[in-house]
């Protein structure tokens, strides 16, 4: 090693470094050492240089390093760890050795550099000890103890596993605690709310159906952190037996705390008991129509009040021996044992529907509700509780399909339809994931000169095997399964982007209409979504109309008016679709800010043959016009219908006579041809 290098550079490079540096010759004598090395050995540089490593830092150190020195002198780079003087205070070093060569490439010695890792080792040991203490303590505890991050279980002690019915704490790792525990205040799984519980406060809860056991527990959360992220320590405790008697536990498990009725579990148990005793019975499965809208628009607290009120009304109406259950969400079950005659189910259902139709007084306004009921008989429609409940549920969905607010009695053909609906739901979900939906456009024409003026966007689904499936089939499935939100967003995104393009090219006159389902309209988040989408796509809201059916506006409540005003405020137009088919009251025409009225095709169908129909349509057109609305007639299939509507001063016409719904590119070809013809 050239001395001038050592004198010039080595000390400058390594002088104030927190690392230990040493250069050794082939016999392991120190040639140079830096300041930090001197401090560690307790000797000056002069005392160290020329001495052998083994004489300075002790045998252990030397014996550990010697093989590495040999490897370095053989041309290798090597690194390892060593602990110096294993007394009370260890000094640990992480070191590297590498060969040093002269200008000819001959190895003349080696360089050693190392870092003191004592502090790190000390901390790692302390953490391991703490973890061991924590683990031992949690094993000794008689309460369940869990560590969760974003509701997911990171670790649990054996008691926690036992209280929740899992075979071992390991089985709980990764489980969502928010779904395992039901909040006894509202009988719903805690879900996301778990993170928002007050620090240190005890909450009553029940284990959910995801847990292998039923238990009543108290839950306490303490905020903590896991690698800097917010986490919680959770303590689960079984209420003292002195405070809660077994029968109280039993009652808690089978009762819905919100309504005081049987919960799903308790209701099923009562049903099983009756089946075991072979008691003939009628079961009604009741679902409140569009209840989600109440929760979404008015909040869960109002939704809860409605459910309580319904429970109370049912209690008052039903006979003493009836068993009533709140099966979850907006679903209720009713058992009528030993029916005195065959029509009892129909009679009671009619009364229940009338009762639910009575207005609900909700603080500042009253709301009308409707309900759909499915009915089964035991022993006729099934031999066990699970099957009976399933069939009653199927019949209830059929009631919804047939227009809601009615009773439907189960029959076997419905099972096939239910399976079909399930298939459609699964396939539709896949189509949404794989971008398998298209938007087609049906042009509308001006009733004056039959030139294209606007269009209606209609979703199309081409199934990879079944081919095109009608929206009339899959839209109701999408509405019931909640997929309509996603489907609606796909359509809106596509239409906004296309309309922006068409308008930029000057290809299309008039607006493009988008259908909104009652579920979409009922969700207050719609406004934010539409507003964001309008901003990002840059579409002029004046070029879009939202079409709503009368049933979407059913109720004429504050929410409807607020939503309609909010859509109008963003600059979009509003149209009432299928006019004349749904709602008996016309007062909404004056109260709601509507721009367009679409006469349903049911009125157009008999236009040529039923003379009174012509008078009816003329009056609808006049009514719309007097309220400053433009009037569209849909479902026009013949030249004669078109001519009659034109004479009646209808504004626009839509129907197969002019155009069927077309893929975007086909319509673009037509629009381009018209566009060129114009200029
Ligand atoms: N017989 C006959 N039918 C005609 C004629 N002209 C148009 N139609 C059909 O009438 C329906 C008009 O749409 P709608 O009343 O809003 O009724 C729509 C609408 O309620 C719903 N829908 C379609 N696309 C969407 C969508 O993107 N979102 C939502 N929420 N619903 C949609 O599905 C329904 C059915 O849609 P489609 O099968 O495309 O059926 C379309 C259209 O093809 C005619 O001259 N004769």
Automatic annotation (TrEMBL):
<dbReference type="InterPro" id="IPR035965">
    <property type="entry name" value="PAS-like_dom_sf"/>
</dbReference>
<dbReference type="GO" id="GO:0071111">
    <property type="term" value="F:cyclic-guanylate-specific phosphodiesterase activity"/>
</dbReference>
<dbReference type="InterPro" id="IPR029787">
    <property type="entry name" value="Nucleotide_cyclase"/>
</dbReference>
<dbReference type="Pfam" id="PF13426">
    <property type="entry name" value="PAS_9"/>
</dbReference>
<feature type="domain" description="PAS">
    <location>
        <begin position="23"/>
        <end position="76"/>
    </location>
</feature>
<keyword id="KW-0973">c-di-GMP</keyword>
<dbReference type="InterPro" id="IPR000160">
    <property type="entry name" value="GGDEF_dom"/>
</dbReference>
<dbReference type="InterPro" id="IPR035919">
    <property type="entry name" value="EAL_sf"/>
</dbReference>
<dbReference type="InterPro" id="IPR013656">
    <property type="entry name" value="PAS_4"/>
</dbReference>
<dbReference type="InterPro" id="IPR001633">
    <property type="entry name" value="EAL_dom"/>
</dbReference>
<dbReference type="Pfam" id="PF00563">
    <property type="entry name" value="EAL"/>
</dbReference>
<feature type="domain" description="EAL">
    <location>
        <begin position="421"/>
        <end position="675"/>
    </location>
</feature>
<feature type="domain" description="GGDEF">
    <location>
        <begin position="279"/>
        <end position="412"/>
    </location>
</feature>
<dbReference type="InterPro" id="IPR000014">
    <property type="entry name" value="PAS"/>
</dbReference>
<dbReference type="Pfam" id="PF08448">
    <property type="entry name" value="PAS_4"/>
</dbReference>
<dbReference type="InterPro" id="IPR043128">
    <property type="entry name" value="Rev_trsase/Diguanyl_cyclase"/>
</dbReference>
<dbReference type="Pfam" id="PF00990">
    <property type="entry name" value="GGDEF"/>
</dbReference>
<dbReference type="GO" id="GO:0071732">
    <property type="term" value="P:cellular response to nitric oxide"/>
</dbReference>
<dbReference type="InterPro" id="IPR052155">
    <property type="entry name" value="Biofilm_reg_signaling"/>
</dbReference>
<protein>
    <recommendedName>
        <fullName>cyclic-guanylate-specific phosphodiesterase</fullName>
        <ecNumber>3.1.4.52</ecNumber>
    </recommendedName>
</protein>
